[in-house]
């Protein structure tokens, strides 16, 4: 496989794991540092192991990756346990435990799961059941956060989720979503469609009552979570998730690639999916059928804007390690942060929000501390 010559070593190995065999000791050092910065150390171990390349690693690198894999296995065990406890807390509500993102990948045993680390478990519930779900979780030890009155309003009136809830003993965090984009965003995917198409998990290891999004919706949510955000320090990890999901479902779900553009249009997520396919192909070599790419290219921004997005995303999605942070990287981070906030709220409300967070929230925090 011929690789672009200017790719960081981590991306070269993720595109072709056999490239690792040719690395000198200095190359292994940079590879491990880039992977750690991108939160992909354990995923790199799983990737090299899957392709029989761990034997070619330096002994020191192999040991470091092995320890990352041990941490990931413990994390996955803790995730299974936590999902079961969440399911127990919500058992009396008559709702499926609809998992999102990392928790869903782990529970369903999907390709992004090996080595995938995440800080919280995300679930999707009907908006009219939020109070019931929140109350049930509180009775089982999860406590709300962000107690400032403005923050409460921000989450409960404008966002797509409750304030994060943390268990008072285990210090684990759960994010309760009622949609996948904020109420104030221009795009408003109908969460009822997501819930209606969700698939229950089966098998002896599946948490009781657990479900995950349908393959098309899981891919669309993965792309939306990445490209509607404003922070990309773990962007490559999320792009790797999307790459793995696309390859898996493209190979195992009949008609997946043909149905993807139509489902994206139905959920108003075409542009996010277009970006996911475009930058997955450019950075990770994600194989995308030309017909699917052409169908979603109708959602691309005008050519000047797309050129700007190319310049920004091809910088921000690289590992945030010194070896990858070339000219314009910090500017790209800043501009994409502004874009992410712009996508969340209309201009006037966004201006008020940023003013409050910059000037009023710090003052309120100081008064509370006094």
Beta-strand percent range? 5-15%
End-to-end gap: 62 Å
Shape: globular
Number of strands: 7
**Helix content range of the residues, please?**
55-70%
Strand order of the largest sheet: 3-4-5-2-1-7-6
Mean pLDDT rating = 92
Provide the low-confidence segments as ranges. 365-370
Question: How would you characterize this protein structure?
Answer:
It is a single chain. 58% of the residues lie in helices and 6% in strands. It has one domain. With 370 residues, it is α/β, with parallel strands linked by helices. The chain contains 16 helices and 7 strands. A 7-stranded mixed β-sheet has the order 3-4-5-2-1-7-6, covered by helices on one side.
Task: Describe the secondary-structure layout.
Blueprint: H1 9-15, H2 25-37, H3 41-50, H4 59-89, E1 97-100, H5 101-108, E2 121-124, H6 130-139, E3 142-144, H7 149-158, E4 165-167, E5 173-177, H8 191-197, E6 199-200, E7 210-212, H9 215-227, H10 235-252, H11 256-266, H12 270-284, H13 290-297, H14 303-316, H15 329-344, H16 347-369
Parallel strand pairs: 1-7, 2-5
Antiparallel strand pairs: 1-2, 3-4, 4-5, 6-7
Helix pairs in contact: 3-4, 9-10, 9-11, 9-12, 10-12, 11-13, 14-15
């Amino acid at each position: 496989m011929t690789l672009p010559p200017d790719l960081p070593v981590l991306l070269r190995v993720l595109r072709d794991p056999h490239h690792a065999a040719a690395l000198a000791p200095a190359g292994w050092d940079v590879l491990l540092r880039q992977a750690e910065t991108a939160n992909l150390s354990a995923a790199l171990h799983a990737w090299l192991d899957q392709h029989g390349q761990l034997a070619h690693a330096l002994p020191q690198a192999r040991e470091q990756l092995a320890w990352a894999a041990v941490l990931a296995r413990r994390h996955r065990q803790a995730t299974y346990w936590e999902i079961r406890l969440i399911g127990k807390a919500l058992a009396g509500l008559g709702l499926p435990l609809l998992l999102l993102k990392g928790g869903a990948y782990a529970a369903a045993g999907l390709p992004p799961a090996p080595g995938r680390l995440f800080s919280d478990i995300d679930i999707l519930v009907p908006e009219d059941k939020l109070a019931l779900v929140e109350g049930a979780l509180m009775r089982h030890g999860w406590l709300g956060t962000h107690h400032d009155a403005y923050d409460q309003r921000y989450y409960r009136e404008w966002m797509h989720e409750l304030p994060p809830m943390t268990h008072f003993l285990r210090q684990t965090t759960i994010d309760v979503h009622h949609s996948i984009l904020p109420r104030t965003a221009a795009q408003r995917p109908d969460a009822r469609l997501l819930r209606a198409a969700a698939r229950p998990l089966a098998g002896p290891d599946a948490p009781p009552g657990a479900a995950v999004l349908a393959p098309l919706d899981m891919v669309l949510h993965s792309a939306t979570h990445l490209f509607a955000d404003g922070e990309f320090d773990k962007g490559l990890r999320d792009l790797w998730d999307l790459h793995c999901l696309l390859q898996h479902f493209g190979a195992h779900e009949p008609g997946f690639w043909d149905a993807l553009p139509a489902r994206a249009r139905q959920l108003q997520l075409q542009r996010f999916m277009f970006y996911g396919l475009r930058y997955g192909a450019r950075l990770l070599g994600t194989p995308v059928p030309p017909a699917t790419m052409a169908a979603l290219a109708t959602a691309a921004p005008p050519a000047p804007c797309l050129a700007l997005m190319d310049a920004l995303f091809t910088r921000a999605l690289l590992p945030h390690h010194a070896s990858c942070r070339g000219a314009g990287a910090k500017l790209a981070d800043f501009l994409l942060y502004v874009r992410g906030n712009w996508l969340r709220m209309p201009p006037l409300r966004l201006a008020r929000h940023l003013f409050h967070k910059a000037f009023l929230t710090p003052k309120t925090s100081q008064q509370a501390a006094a």
